[in-house]
Amino acid sequence: MQTALAQNSGVAGTLTDENQSPLPRATVMLINAGDSTMEKFTISDNEGKFTFNKLKAGEFLLQVSYVGYQNISRPISLEAGKILDIGNVSMKQESELLENVTIEADRIPMQIKEDTVEYNAGAFDTRPGATVEDLLKKLPGVEVENDGTIKAQGETINKVLVDGKEFFGNDPQIATKNLPADAMDKVQVFDQLSEMSQFTGVDDGTREKTINLTLKEDKKNGLFGNAEGGYGENDRYNAKLNLNQFTKKQQLSVISSANNINQQNFSLDDYINLSGGLSNLISGGGGSISLELDEGLGSALGLTNGGIRNNWTVGANFNKDISDKTELSFNYFFNDLQNVLNKSTERQNYNGDNVFLSNIL
């Protein structure tokens, strides 16, 4: 019974403005005071009320953010088996703040700004060398499946942007599996208008769930990336390179890899996505794929373990703002996969007392 009570601590309250009007859809987060990790988050209801329950007793920071209002950060202490009612929490409008006063919000892990959910990447700890995919797995409301598919608020992410620009076409996994997590400032999730709507300015009602990765300022004026390599017995090798150079008006990224240890760098699905989909691939409108098969389709695509596969991959992505209304975009992806399979067959044929041997290499 004591264990059950220890897990039934909680906190509740109501958010209002200075006129005691409720503030609906404010972002409310509970931060562990010990390690600054987010314990839980919620959104206030239409009456400005919020509740957290099924918590462990301990010390926390209650953080509240609402567009146009000053962020609130309040320490609270939860006792085992008790619900703490903090009553009415009044929020002040930002216009009432002194001009020379800066409100530090670096520890606010998540905010909702109109139709955009924005995560502060620095509020979520990742291991050294982690990728954006590792970061996304820690964000509340975001899921990364075993095959790398990303979902946010239950919808599949079809596009990942970097500072508002496309990164390697329409394959979100190229960005999430290659860009380093420590280069990210914010992760924004929103519904983007279709390309036709953006071009014509006429809303056709079509939306695409999109993630926009914003870079830290020090990553927008330099070169960053990673490289790794290894060499072993029987001339086995594995090497990867990822270089990125970003400025406020230009993006350049190069990814490459090479190995002969049967490690598939990108799947056939990745090639199809980069080519704009299967229909574009078949019609030739979005790119092309050439497959030379020596020992069957399964070996060449990595569906079986027949032979040794030599895999070479290189990709480049370039975006440049030429003017306020003109942008140049280019991406290229090349993969060379060679399957080497050595076979030796020995046969014995009997004809009466005669035996015929044959070897096939």
Short description:
The chain is mainly beta and 361 residues long. The chain contains seven helices and 23 strands. The chain is elongated.
Order of helices and strands: HEEEEEEEEEHEEEEEHEHEEEEHHHEEEE
Which secondary-structure class do the elements indicate?
mainly beta
Please state the average pLDDT score. 78
Which bin fits the share of residues in helices? Answer: 10-25%
Number of strands: 23
Strand order in space, largest sheet = 8-9-15-16-13-14
The rounded distance between the terminal residues' Cα atoms is 72 Å
> What percent of residues are in strands?
over 45%
Number of helices: 7
Assign an overall shape. elongated
Radius of gyration: 27 Å
**Uncertain residue segments:** 1-6, 97-106, 271-289, 291-304
What is the makeup of the main sheet?
6 strands, mixed
Total tally of structural domains: 3
